UniProtKB/TrEMBL annotation:
InterPro entries: Aldolase_TIM, Ribul_P_3_epim, Ribul_P_3_epim-like, RibuloseP-bd_barrel. A divalent metal cation binds at H45, D47, H78, D188. Keywords: Carbohydrate metabolism, Cobalt, Isomerase, Manganese, Metal-binding, Zinc. Substrate binds at S20, H78, G155, F156, G157, G158, G190, G210, S211. The keyword ATP-binding does not apply. The lineage of its organism: Bacteria, Candidatus Eiseniibacteriota. The keyword Iron does not apply. This is Ribulose-phosphate 3-epimerase. The gene is rpe. GO terms for molecular function: D-ribulose-phosphate 3-epimerase activity; metal ion binding. It comes from the Bacteria.
Amino acid sequence: MGSGIERLQRLGREGRALPSILSADFAALAASIRPLLDAGSQVLHVDVMDGHFVPNITFGPPVVRSVRAHTDAFLDTHLMVTDPLTYMEPFAKAGSDLCTIHAEVGIAPEAARAEADRLGVGLGVAIRPSTGLDAVVEAWARHVDLILVMSVEPGFGGQSFRPEAVERLARTKEICWRQGVAPILEVDGGIDRETAPGVVAAGARWLVAGSAIFRASDPVAAYHALREIASI
């Protein structure tokens, strides 16, 4: 399949809807994601929570390894953990293609980039809504492949979208443009057919959606609707 960095380059710059498996049926995970993969989804979003950085606990590397056994989709792994440099390697070995770490944990961008390059995975940085945006983006933009602007506080699925995320995405895009870099802008939290157009207009290219897809009466139709909006 190649390294995560190579796979990310092959995906290109097109807008995408990313099913977040946090909202899938854990007792039938492969069966939950298969219809979406068959419908054309090339990227799955994996939310990893350690019970420390956020109060919830979700997946470890064994779950990623199990998902990887069922698909060659790009696995976009969001590490909501206090010690991401410890966990990047086991997740990379399990099949993660890109690891996004939180700016709030205090890791130096250069150290995170060096570890991602050593492992052959892409690197993202996530910013929670309560974190000052400009300083984080200015420090990280040159070192990452992706910037995740959270539109809810991390830790639980099914939260309501925070409208200020639209302005924060636009500001992120502006700072990156000034630095002459163009990481993928991703948004996660409360994304559905109503909130998606605004974030796309602000610059988001990857739209993470959990409840809006997996809890829809027709998950495939919901995925197609979001993908169409993301592709505008």
